[in-house]
Specification:
By secondary structure, this protein is mainly alpha-helical. Among the domains are: 19-59, Orthogonal Bundle (Arc Repressor Mutant), CATH 1.10.1220; 60-90. It is built from four helices and no strands. The chain has helices at residues 25-38, 42-58, 61-89, 107-112. It is elongated, with a radius of gyration of 26 Å. The relative contact order is 0.06.
């Protein structure tokens, strides 16, 4: 059963994913009342609340500081991996006159050579 597109999801190209969340009976009852009052589904109310919470977190200085540290670590790791790949596939490690073997040639083309 799919839900109709709403302003929050209309025009988005990303696939919706299911998220199971355990909540208390009291919280669920409150959610159901709010959904009834707004005319939206409980799922839509949760989605809207999460979108609002994420927007709030985007401007939280503590979260921004942690995000910068994580981004810097990701970039350091990416540079390390790029250097490793370059070292593996650089010309320095191959004997003179012999190119590193590649598998880009099709078997039919190799057989006709």
């Amino acid at each position: 059963m799919s839900e109709p597109a709403t302003p929050a999801t209309a025009g988005t190209q990303s696939q919706l994913k299911t998220l199971a969340v355990r909540i208390t009976e009291d919280l669920r009852a409150q959610l159901d009342v709010i959904a009834q009052l707004t005319g939206r589904s409980a799922t839509e109310e949760i989605r809207l609340a999460l979108e609002h919470w994420i927007e709030t977190m985007k401007s939280d200085p503590a979260v921004l500081t942690k995000a910068e540290k994580v981004r810097a670590e990701i970039e350091r790791e990416a540079q390390t991996r790029q250097k490793a790949i370059a070292a593996i596939f650089s010309d320095e490690g191959t004997p003179k006159g012999k190119a590193p073997s590649t598998r880009s040639t099709s078997p039919a083309k190799a057989a006709s050579s």
